[in-house]
Amino acid sequence: MSSQTDSQARHDTQTTPPGWLVLLLAVACGATVANLYYAQPLLPAFQTAFGVDAVTAGALITVTQLSYAASLVLVVPLGDRAEKRRLTSWLLVVTTVALVGAGLAPNFPVLLIASLVSAATSVVVQILLPFAADIAPAPARGRIVGRVMSGLLTGVLLSRTIGGFLAEAAGWRAVYLISAALMAILAVALRLALPRHAPRTTISYGQLLRSTVRLARVHAPLRRRALYQSALFGAFSAFWTTISFVLSGPGFDYSELEIGVFALVGVGGALIAPLAGRWADHGRSRPMTAVAFIAAALAFGIAGFGAHSVIALGAAAVLLDMAVQTSMVLGQHTIYQLDETARARLNSSYMATFFVGGAIGSFLGSFAFHLGGWSAVSILGAACAVLALLYWCTEREHATAA
Fold first, then answer.
1. Which CATH number fits domain 17-392: 1.10.287.370, 1.20.1250.20, 2.40.30.10, 3.40.50.150?
2. To 10 degrees, the CA torsion angle through 35, 16, 189, 103?
3. In whole angstroms, what is the distance from residue 164 CA to residue 365 CA?
């Protein structure tokens, strides 16, 4: 008990990290996570280049998300055992090589394999997020993590616009090759700029993985927040995996660039991340989680009824992104308080669970679109949000997850 008190006092009195370091972490997270989403507006281009159908092209999104989820389980826990600066730079070197492979892919299977590897190593983002929590004083942790998350989420959203713009201007291969150059620059920048961060534990790799499973079994708030986010991220993935087919189809006939520009509307949703961090710091996680679920369900209602209006689809995208980002920041604030010596492992369990939800959402979204068009996708997304809200109703007011 004494050591916990001393640790809490140390965190309460530590200084706020410099703004440039928080900004670097935000930029690094945004640029790296974008690798998972560049392909979404490019799916029609893949169909043309490789002669595959919509379901096969959409499978690339599912495979990359599953690869990312597997790496969350197998790689991210090393953030508690390894020196973070060295680990992040080496992961980014592998990401660089994989992206070059994707940009030069002669066929769809090679593109798929290269995307799988780049997704697996892009988990560097989930090592940097707990790092941000570690260097932040306890009273400002939600705000600082929220700022880094805003960079990450801006990267998620801008990736579609950037991907569409580069594909229109120089072809889809340029998207991967330019990202490879950016990853190489980030590998060097983070190696030079990040402070050394001592490992939190010296246990073996096998013990590290077993302890990650144990944390999920012991901490009910971790399981609950992971399932909340799984439902919302599944809906989010279903929306963004299939919207490119809607916008490139009859009634819109958008090019890759125009599809990418559409994704810009969602960037407004990233602005809510720091605000969500403040809500978490002030103990409002539980009610605002319910608001996020309701907002997501409403977003799909707007999308379904406004399927022929780009304004309605844009409004739905903003509302959905705000809902997902709010829930994510609130969830991370909750789990980072559970065990300060195991934040990378807590984050590993949390993120792996909801990225599996995202992969399932991508698959079901593509399948629903194939069977019933955009209306079926809208029903699927709304159902995910409603199920999450029903599960939220079983949460007790005094639960730690609040």
1. 1.20.1250.20
2. 0
3. 21
pLDDT tens track for 9-22 = 444 446 777 778 88
DSSP for residue 136: S
Structure tokens at 288: 């605002």
Give the separation between CA 397 and CA 32, rounded to whole angstroms: 37
What pLDDT shows up at residue 14? 62
**Residue positions counted in the chain:** 402
Among residues 247, 237, 391, the alpha carbon closest in space to that of 324 is found at 237
| pLDDT-derived band at 397, boundaries 50, 70, 90 | low
CA atoms lying within 13 Å on the CB side of residue 229: 25
Q: Are 99 and 176 in contact (CB under 8 A)?
A: yes
Quick one: pLDDT band at residue 184, thresholds 50, 70, 90?
Answer: very high
CB 273 within 8 A of CB 153: yes
What mean pLDDT is predicted for residues 144-155? 79
Residue 307 pLDDT greater than 70, yes or no: yes
Alpha-carbon span 44 to 373, nearest angstrom: 16
Residue 160 CB coordination number (10 Å): 28
Residues 317, 302: Cα–Cα separation, whole Å: 9
